[in-house]
Design a protein that fits this description.
heterodimer; A: mainly alpha; two-stranded antiparallel sheet; 2 strands; flat; B: 195 residues; mainly alpha
């Protein structure tokens, strides 16, 4: 009964947790391969983010619907097959919408199957929670993933090609940093984002610590 | 495509278009297991073995699937084969070297979700390699993966002793390191053709 009660409460937190506190890329460091590989332009990042979000939503909702029917011993295999089905759908849909985009993303659309974010959600959340709750949580996670991809894609396109969404920003005088759209640039930009976040976290902890010591001092006084 | 020699395919997959540093495949195990040199090497070799098995199976599956005109099942079939190959390696490792089995821990079953392996199977399909070419391609990719993970582990063991700002400890520094490695591997570009 208790679990049913817990299931019934759907809070804003279920949605927001994926965007900020447990952001799949910046905090949990999951699914790094597509993050680094396809973010050399904003358009590619957006397409990849949306495709992954769709697969995440579809597969985790289905897993959550079937969670009482899947035997425990073969659950991982079942999850993978459910995910692979959705990825096949996305693969054909992108091919139908834009062949250029399909060629730019290459094998990485099919590689969504082995994205740890999706299997991780299925195993750790969808198999335990109700359908609606899972849907909302996955939506948050998917959006968090999209935001992370866009963060990287925007920086890399801006510096590497001097443009945003294909429109030149800096004018003709700008010499593009070609390295940013090549593989090493991906590692460097993600490394810098992580540095920024860890600096942010550290300075906040520092401030909190100061606050508590100040409060203790006040009380003592 | 047929003009590519076997040696060229091997060098290309191992060094010029290194799976980890140029294609970004299999980043998770490289960041996760490269903490120590003596677990990195077995991890690389285990991955190489799974690559070899799954690449040959993928070649067979392709023939069967295209005979029956059901190519849309390719992805699901590949994943099933890879999962079984990983299970095989896991069981034999548990029997022959239990210590290593414990040291690799969760990362051993996670080879299933290593994108380098599925990527290899997909790339060799896209490039329409024949049997021998697939064999050399998978050997090259495995060597490249082992090379990358061992290099990373060696560098990270050294870096543990260095005094760096505490903000940059952990993942951020590993990524910077991978970036520099990737930069140096770009120096090999002249050896072959980049796609």
């Amino acid at each position: 009964m208790t679990s049913r009660n817990k299931d019934a409460q759907i809070t804003m937190d279920d949605f927001l947790v994926g965007i900020w506190r447990e952001n799949p890329v910046f905090v949990m460091l999951l699914g790094m391969c597509p993050v680094l590989a396809v973010t050399n332009s904003v358009v590619n990042s957006l397409a990849m983010g949306l495709a992954t979000t769709f697969v995440l939503l579809g597969s985790s909702t289905l897993v959550s619907l079937l969670r009482n029917f899947i035997p425990k011993e073969v659950r991982i295999a079942t999850y993978i097959i459910i995910i692979a089905t959705f990825v096949t759908v996305v693969d054909y849909v992108i091919q139908a919408i834009s062949l250029d985009l399909y060629n730019a993303l290459g094998a990485f659309i099919q590689l969504i199957v082995v994205n740890c974010i999706i299997l991780g959600r299925a195993e750790s959340y969808a198999s335990k929670n109700s359908m609606l709750k899972t849907f909302i949580n996955s939506l948050g996670m998917g959006l968090g993933f999209c935001i992370a991809l866009l963060c990287l894609g925007a920086v890399r396109e801006l510096l590497g090609a001097g443009s945003l969404l294909g429109h030149p920003i800096f004018g003709p005088g700008f010499e593009p940093w070609v390295i940013m759209i090549l593989p090493p640039g991906g590692f460097f930009v993600l490394g810098c984002w992580l540095l920024l976040f860890s600096w942010f976290k550290q300075s906040r902890e520092h401030k909190n610590q100061h606050k508590t010591t100040a409060e203790v001092a006040n009380h003592a006084g | 495509m047929q003009a590519e020699s076997l040696g060229f395919i091997f060098i290309n997959a191992a060094i010029v278009n290194n799976f980890v540093l140029a294609y970004f495949l299999g980043i998770c195990p490289v960041l996760g297991v490269s903490g120590k040199l003596n677990t990195a090497l077995p991890m690389g070799l285990a991955t190489m073995l799974v690559m070899l098995i799954s690449s040959l199976c993928a070649f067979a599956i392709n023939i069967i699937l295209s005979n029956f005109d059901i190519e849309f099942l390719r992805l699901i079939a590949f994943i099933a084969v890879i999962a079984s190959a990983v299970q095989l390696v896991e069981m034999s490792m548990k029997k022959f070297s239990p210590n290593l089995f414990r040291a690799l821990g969760i990362f051993l079953p996670l080879i299933t979700t290593n994108c380098a392996i599925l990527g290899l199977a997909l790339f060799q399909t896209a490039k329409e390699y024949d049997f021998l070419q697939s064999l050399f391609y998978s050997l090259g990719a495995g060597t490249g993966f082992t090379l990358a993970i061992v290099l990373m582990a060696g560098l990270r063991e050294k870096l543990d002793l260095v005094d760096v700002p505490s903000v940059s400890r952990g993942a951020a520094m590993s990524l910077m390191l991978a970036g520099i490695l990737s930069l140096s591997f770009m120096g090999f570009t002249g050896l072959g053709v980049t796609y």
